[in-house]
Design a protein that fits this description.
By secondary structure, this protein is α/β, with parallel strands linked by helices. It has helices spanning 47-55, 72-78, 84-108, 122-125, 138-152, 173-177, 195-208, 223-231, 236-252, and strands at 9-13, 24-32, 35-44, 60-64, 154-155, 163-170, 218-220. The chain has one domain (1-285). Strand 2 (24-32) and strand 3 form a beta hairpin. The chain is globular, with a radius of gyration of 18 Å.
Length: 285
């Protein structure tokens, strides 16, 4: 495998319905001696544009902010395929409406207080169950994102072997942000983009630019680009950078299973940087 600084490193803030107001946002940079050098941020407002970006030749590594897999418990209960490529194809064949209906029925079949099955990584990460369909619709993000990674032939360590020069890792920016600030730092609704959230983004960016941060290396970028991470009230640009830095952290550990546990469930996957021994309550769902 090439040296880490030979690989473009990307972070993808994902949405299940890209458009002008909510594009797929991609941060791209490189590992340098000073840290992670952010070079550009792109926005893709439709699926063909994002798919073309995914299909570009490697080498590259990316951190993607959506669940790559579904809880094994739910897949087993539903009688769906128990290997990742077949599961993704099955869900895509259902389509959004039937996929949504199947998950709605499944949740209603479970006891009150335990409607949502979780993956092994969800609880230590504090992330939502991939069965959740609103606020945020991470189940639909799985549906739209995983199928496009499969079609593009991207290798997903622990889940799917494909092009070794294009590597995708599941990232979760909230896991990192909560280690830096308390409370919310973003909101898509303009009326909810408060001074407090602006201050939280400023604190996150300030921490990232110092090596004493959860990654152990600094964010390096020109001032104008760094300023946009604070100014963007939706948090999409900052989240894309956090995903890219998670991918950079994993690339440094490419010879150690990209920093993932050795026993990653080949149906559920794992979230980059989440320690397997960490025990933390997941979000109440």
């Amino acid at each position: 495998m090439r040296a880490a600084n030979d690989w473009p490193v990307c972070g993808v803030d994902f949405t299940s319905r890209p458009g002008v107001r909510k594009p797929v946002t991609v941060a791209t940079g490189r590992i340098r001696a000073r840290g992670f050098e952010l070079q550009r941020i792109d926005e893709f407002r439709n699926w063909p544009a994002f798919e073309a970006w995914l299909a570009r030749p490697g080498p590259w590594i990316g951190g993607f902010d959506f669940p790559f897999g579904l809880p094994r418990e739910a897949v087993s209960d539903l009688g769906w395929p128990r290997n990742w490529p077949d599961l993704v194809r099955h869900c895509r064949a259902l389509g959004r409406d039937a996929f949504r209906a199947a998950l709605d029925r499944y949740r209603e079949s479970r006891p009150a207080g335990n409607r949502y099955a979780h993956r092994a990584a969800d609880r230590p990460a504090g992330s939502h169950s991939p069965l959740k369909l609103v606020n945020p619709p991470v189940g639909l993000m799985f549906l739209e994102g995983a199928s496009r990674l499969l079609d593009a032939g991207v290798s997903l360590p622990g889940l799917h072997v494909a092009d070794p020069q294009r590597i995708g890792l599941e990232a979760y920016p909230g896991f990192i942000a909560r280690q830096i600030v308390v409370g919310s730092y973003k909101n898509d609704a303009r009326a909810m983009q408060t001074p407090e959230r602006h201050a939280a983004r400023r604190a996150i960016v300030a921490t990232l630019t110092r090596p004493e941060n959860p990654f152990g290396f600094s964010l390096v970028a020109v001032a104008d680009l760094t300023a946009t991470l604070v100014a963007d009230g939706s948090g999409d640009r900052l989240d894309a950078v956090l995903c890219a830095m998670q991918a950079a952290w994993a690339l440094h550990r490419r010879d150690e299973n990209f920093g993932m546990p050795d026993d990653v469930d080949a149906l559920e996957g794992w979230i980059t940087m989440v320690p397997s021994g960490l025990r933390k309550a997941s979000r109440h769902e």
